[in-house]
Structures are given as structure tokens and as C-alpha cells.
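so i finally got all the pieces together for this one. its two components total, 448 residues if u count the protein bits. some of the lines might not be protein, just check the labels. i wanna see the whole assembly predicted at once instead of chain by chain like last time, that was a mess tbh
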Amino acid sequence: MSLADLFKLPSHVSKRCRFNTHVFENEFARADLHFFGVDHATYSYNLHVFLNNEDADLNSDRTIENGYAGVVPVFGHGGCYGGSGHCCVKHMSRAGDRRRDHPLVKAFKRLTITETLRHVLSGKKTFKVTIVPEITGGSSRCDAVPAKYFDRVTVVTYD
Amino acid sequence: MRLRKNIRNFDTGQLSNIRKTYGRMQSLMDNRGFNHIAGLHGIPNFHCWHHQAVRDVDQGVRLFLPWHRAYLYTFEQFLIDAAEDEGLATDEIALPWWDWRSTTSRTEGIPKEFGDQNDQDGNPNPLFSFTINQPQSGVAEPTERWPMNPAGLPPENTVEALRAKGDFDDFNDDLESFHDTLHGWIGGYLRDNQDRPIDRNGNLVTRREDVVFGHMGAVAVSAFDPIFWSHHAMIDRIWRLWQIDNGVETGFTPSLQSRVLEPFGMTVADVLDVARLDYDYAGAENEVM
């Protein structure tokens, strides 16, 4: 059994995204995906991003023709090495608490997808995002893959 | 000015000296030693900055590069101390860097300077592995790595492509992505010749929890692998090259520059210019006369 089979993880497929008219005409200079609330507490992993390829998986060709937009690698902490509650993220909202945030506060990541988005939009007016996770590292303290790799994803275009 | 050099260009004497120095530092179990300094990254002390995260601001701050520059600088100072204690000339003692996108790396993988289990005299190679001793975290084990296929290393034009990024945030994010990828690549996992995970007895693994990953693949323990420091020296070198083109302060507002990089007692401003830290990067350095 390969590592990918062992960690066979469900892909995330977005709803169909619809933009305003000028984006249909590909008049954007740049397009990014913004990943909010990225979990980095346990395994290290990649998020492979495909556009308009709902069936994409880890065996899919990573080409622009296949909708491949790139990868977001996430270097994970490797699980908890402390006592009970050690890795529970506290936001330290008490007045006067000047400590640095908990280092496992969820992260922000972004991926530039300009060329692939232009490619998949040509002749079409909408698109879908498929995100395929792949485990790349970990430790004996990783007890579970993240229940959610991220909280939300937005697409941002720039004129 | 201290010069950090490409480890593939080390001559026999330089390699012997840096190995002796790492060995000395690894033998120290107090706060001058490898075990202590490596323990500032993940366990037992979790000071490192990765990704972007800061209270209530999803898009956060990018302290990945300055924090690791302060970390490498501090490690290097203790390395020089160890060389002194070992009776070695300290002028040439500096962190070696590993060019993971070179043609040689993309063909051969990890340099033998790190990959050989023993040094030229048949003794254990301090650059190959270190035995972690962190009882408060319940970890007492040698670091291990099972690097992936060398063809999967970043392409040869990586440095040039990164230097071409005009915007610091773009540069930082892309460089950090290469950094993240490399950690997973170097650590890898214990596997057979068909890339199937196996346990230490050679049996095929059928449960996720039985996969044996290399230490470089997890933030908590990665800094205990001696190659961590040379992987990060390459990251720091690329930032240094980008700064030559774009200025040392680019990307850091006055407010960001005043942030303290714990636990090193340095601010972001203190580490922006490598000249102020009295080091730079070179391919090689050899005495000719």
C-alpha cells in the first residue's frame, strides 16, 4: 500500500464560482487563492489545486491543460509533545496579556493561479476549485489528520 | 567577515573541521550545546515563526525569514565557540549551505557530507544524525531521514525565479513554500523499493500511525537533524541575494522592524543586514598563499 493509499483523503470541491463580467473577459492581471485558517498542528501536507477538474486526484497530470494551478505546501508541527491542553490554541484575549500568540494559531496561505484561471475561463463563465491533500511528513505524535485543512478559501483577482 | 560556503566545495580539511565542531557542540548538554539550541525551534521550546499568523489578523506578519536568520546567527556563534574549545582556527568556521536545486543535488540527492554515516576516519558523522535528548518532551532518539527522489527537488532556475519577484510578500511566500517542500522531501519516510511504507522490521505498513517519518518533516523535531542548519542557510542565502537586488529593509515597516525575535534578544531591524551580523555567503574559500 502506497503512502497516498494509506492516507487516502477526501478532496475538497468548491461550489461553482461566478465572477463579474470583466473577469469573464479575462481582464485581470493576476488571480490568487487565499487560504484562511490553515491547520499546521499535526502532519505536514500539500494542497494540490485544480481548476475545473472535479475528479482530480494525486494521480492526475499536473498540467495547466488538466487545470492544475499549483501546490500549497504546509510544514506541520508534528503533533503534540506536551501535556493535556498543551496544543489547544488560546487566543490570549485577556486585557494586559502581551504574550505572543500561540504558535499553532491557524495560518494564512496564498497561491497565485493567474495562468490556470485564464486557461480554464477561456470560453467559460464559471469555474470550480478542487483541492487534493497529500501527506508529506509527520511524527509518532500525529494522532489524526486534520479534520479540516483550512477554514475557507477565497479567489482574489487584481486589475 | 565570516563566509558561509557551499558544503560541496569543502576540501578535506574544511570538512573535517566542521564535523569536529558539530561533534563538539553535540557533546554539550548545557545551554551552549546542539541539543539546547535545536530545542528552541519546536520542542521543548516552540519559538519559531512559520506561515503567517498573528492575533486577529489572518494575513498576519511575515517573520519567517528574520526569525530564522537570528536563529542561524545564534547557532553559528555557539558553533564558533565550540571550534575554539576544540582548538581549531575559527576564521573559517561558518554554517555550510546546501544548494538543493543544483544539478548535482537533483541527480544525487543529499550530499555525502551529510549522507555518509561515518566520517573519513570511520567515526560517526556528526552531520548525519544527532541523538535527541529532551526528556520533558519524552523524546530520546537519533534523528533519521529517508529523502525522496532527487528529481523532485526544486528546479535549477529556482533562485533566479525567486530573485525576479519584485514584491517581498510574493518572494517570502514562494521561498517559504520551497522551504516547506524541502522539509518533507528531506525527512521522507521509511519505505521499500516500491515506495511503500514499511516498519522497522521491513513489514509493509497498513495503519497510518505505523508510518515512520523522518525528523525533518515535522516542525517540532526538525532542527535536531544536522542538515536543518544547512537547508536554512540556503534559504537565508536566497533572501540575502534578493536583498542585494531590492534593499535590506524592503518588506519590513518600522513597526515590524521593532519586533523582538524571541529568545535571541534581537529585533527584526538587527538582522536585516548581514553585514551588521558580520557574515556573507560564498561558493568556496581556499587559502592560496
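The first helix of chain A runs from residue 3 to 6.
Helices of chain A lie at 3-6, 21-24, 114-121.
anyway lmk what u think
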